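Limitations
The structure tokens in this dataset are predictions for the assembled complex, not deposited experimental models. Users should treat interface geometry with appropriate caution, especially where small molecules or nucleic acid strands are included. An illustrative entry is reproduced here so readers can see what is and is not provided.
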Amino acid sequence: MSNVWRGVVVPWIPRAILLGLFAFAIFGPLANLLLWSVAEVWYFPHKLPLEWGFDFWRQVFKPRGNAMLSLNNSIIIAIFTVIVSLAIAIPAGYALARRNLPWRSLILIAFLLPQAFPSVAVYINVARIFYGFGLAGTYVGVVLVHTVQGLVFAVWIATAAFSAVDRELEEAARNLGASGLRTFMTITLPLALPGIMASAIFVFLISLDEFTGTFFVGVPDVVTMPLLLFNASMEGNYQIASITSLLLLVPSVGFMLFIERFLKADVLAKVGN
Amino acid sequence: MMTLHRSLRDERVWSFALVAPALLTVGLLFIYPLGFSAVSAFSAEEEGGWTFANFIKAFDLYSNDILFTVVIVSLSTVLIGVFAIAIGGYLTLGENLYAVAILKWLYRWPLFIPFIVAAQLMRTFLAKNGLMNNLIVGSGLLEPLQTQSFLDWRGIVITFVWKQTPFVALLVAGAMASLDRSMIESARNLGAGRLRILIEIILPQVRPTIVVALILSFVVMMSVLSVPIMINAQTPTMLTVDMAFRINAYGDYGVANALGFISYLMTGVVAWIYLRHGVRQGGSP
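Predicted assembly:
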């Protein structure tokens, strides 16, 4: 008995304390958010909300309310960002994976630039340039800004996905007389599709979550979910801010849990090569 | 057979045509505005011509904030590095499979949570009546009236560390997992402790990954607007907030771009240290 105590329980005490603290650090803030989303009255020094309820949820999901409008805006912008990104990333990824391009690594690095500089000053100037073209405060302007943010992932993952396709299958199709385009459409693209899907989901999430670019380029007309969250939080309406946060959290956490299923190891190993 | 007749030059033109839209997008929507901001930082908006006036004004008004930004981001980077190495090290060297599995499941949660959501989470969690204070009061360590809000520079650091550690830990753990186990095992057989194995054998081999991941985090933290605005509204604050304020309150592009240029320089210095370091490392066996 005492051996079991010493061999199993004692080593678990420091481990359990550390893991418990770590779990609190990770889930404590999330739990606080859940509390706020169902709190109707809550002020200092009360440890828990004084009144509970789903009133604010009804307010958020009211048809034609501000929240539904910004949810719609976010989804429309994210869908168009995915379409634009894939339209430019698929040809680029194919060329980078399959064709002899001089300066190939330099081109790959170029897509990383938007991640390599602090971006606030860049967005300020994008907004200023867009203003001259009438793009400031428009959906098109916001989609373009989101596209640049997501492009490195779209292009790099597409390149990796095309690189992972077995060349011999393409050559077999060509030998049987298929044209280049037909080989691409019937062999290469379908085989690369899981990787492309992963990059599409990634770009969708980036667009859904993007705040800084939208803050400068979208004002005053395009209000997305992150902007609604920001405005509600700054006005002190923590309930609306928390519910909006939860709506943004669900896809992010879902993606974290399922990314390995979308992005297969053979593709992942080729990202950035 | 037809393809064989196509000349190499045609092939290259086609390849470039396929990449061109993507390159143009980055060029027009990122590199051009980046250059625009650098030029604007050194231009006199009204009189025209080149000037340092924007920088002089920026230092006059915001030298505290520049220092504050450097301290906050550097401190966060160091803490993220320490936690990420600890997590990666335990995942690689941990002997209890259950504890490793639990940690592996736990640490990734904040990975894809957007910064603005992390800011809102911490705005509630770290407040005077947030869950963190309630737990401390509940455990009897403090009286309710002794609690304090952490929504100042500490809040920014906590939020940055909470949000960015999983990203660095993921890369570091991946690099550690792909190391050759034989050296670790032989050190273990010779009786080396786990901490010693981590510091003397594993860390030197994964250092490039750690440095790249930390530099990327550094840039990300320099770019985030939502966290400092939402966590720490008072002065001193971070440069991103000052830039937004110069634009929204005064339409003052000159000073905003000068502050932007200063933030490019900060990341430039970090990248330069890394490159110099990398060259020196490359020279030794």
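Some entries come with short summary sentences. For this one: The CA atoms of residues 62 and 98 of chain A lie 50 Å apart.
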